[in-house]
Design goal:
about 300 residues, alpha+beta, Alpha-Beta Plaits, three-stranded antiparallel beta sheet, 10 helices, about 40% helix, FAD/NAD(P)-binding domain, globular, 11 strands
Length: about 300
């Protein structure tokens, strides 16, 4: 859908071709492709994912230490089946810390599909590697046995990948702007990045329009891009980042507190699934958690 919209607006889409190198020269950016072609432009946007060639070749990415490894499965289901297993309200399930995973697994039913996944946060290269596929498949089978998953769910065609959990120190330089995963702009709690990619892309487009109007593609001028996306998303990322460490702590206590309060549960699910901006949720969650924590202490 996004590709079609871009084509409708005049973009030229090149499939099965990779960028080999990017050189920032006087008055232009030179882009070298793996088929031998060379393209020149006034400015380039790196929206090429967590292993961004744009970021590496321009020196914006030197070492990405904070990463999450994700495995997931999404499948279409009849609404009647989803109603039967997850009610019309679409009940969600979260499983933190399963089998030593520094993260959590989830089952998120939507209107006519079911999204299931597992994210494991790796803080450095020394983090023990986990067989996420084995852990994930074992969990799905247990959920089937408990009738929390429809028996027709197919385990094949699992997806997955690496997601950044920390923005790059700088997301721009002379004639270059980075968006989305390439810049490390995501929800660091859930690993979800589509919304953040679209927001950062909108700010990139606005900044580039201004750059053409001013005929200025310098690093100093393009710094306004980072200020724009940070104004929109920075508070959210700054607030959520400490939460990505939560799975290393006493998550059992946290879950026991949260599960007693359906309102708090809904607020946290909205945060994890990026249904609502953290700006709108931050104080609601804080106040609700304090209230639930007080109740927990009174009961114990």
């Amino acid at each position: 859908m996004l590709v079609k919209r871009a084509l409708d607006k005049g973009a030229i889409f090149r499939d099965n071709i990779k960028v080999e190198d990017i050189k920032i020269l006087e008055g232009q950016v030179k882009i070298l492709l793996n088929n031998g072609e060379t393209h020149k432009a006034y400015i380039a946007i790196g929206a090429d994912g967590v292993n961004s060639v744009t970021a590496k070749k321009t020196g914006l990415l030197k070492n990405r230490r904070h990463l999450g490894v994700c495995i997931l499965k999404e499948t279409m289901l009849d609404e009647e089946v989803l109603d039967e297993f997850y009610t019309e309200k679409r009940s969600c399930y979260i499983y933190p810390g399963i089998d030593g995973v520094t993260g959590y697994a989830w089952v998120f039913p939507k209107k006519n599909r079911l999204n299931m996944g597992l994210i494991h946060y790796r803080r450095n290269n020394k983090t023990d590697k986990k067989n996420l596929k084995s852990i994930f498949l074992s969990l799905l089978q247990k959920l089937k046995d408990k009738k929390l998953l429809p028996p027709t769910i197919d385990y094949s065609n699992l997806g997955g990948g690496i997601v950044p959990v920390w923005p790059l120190e700088k997301t721009y330089t002379d004639r270059i702007i980075l968006c989305g995963d390439a810049a490390g702009i995501i929800n660091p709690l859930s690993g979800e990045g589509i919304y953040h990619a679209i927001v950062s892309a909108n700010h990139a487009a606005d900044t580039i329009i201004e750059a053409f109007e001013e005929k200025n593609f310098s690093e100093d001028f393009l710094s306004k891009y980072e200020k724009k996306w940070f104004q929109d998303l920075g508070e959210e990322i700054r607030v959520i980042l400490p939460s990505s460490n939560i799975w290393r702590r006493d998550y059992e206590k946290l879950i026991s507190i949260v599960k007693r309060d359906p309102i708090l549960t809904e607020l946290l699910l909205d945060l994890i699934t990026s249904q609502t901006s953290v700006k709108n949720l931050r104080w609601k969650i804080t106040k609700r958690y304090i209230l639930s924590l007080l109740r927990h202490h009174l009961e114990h």
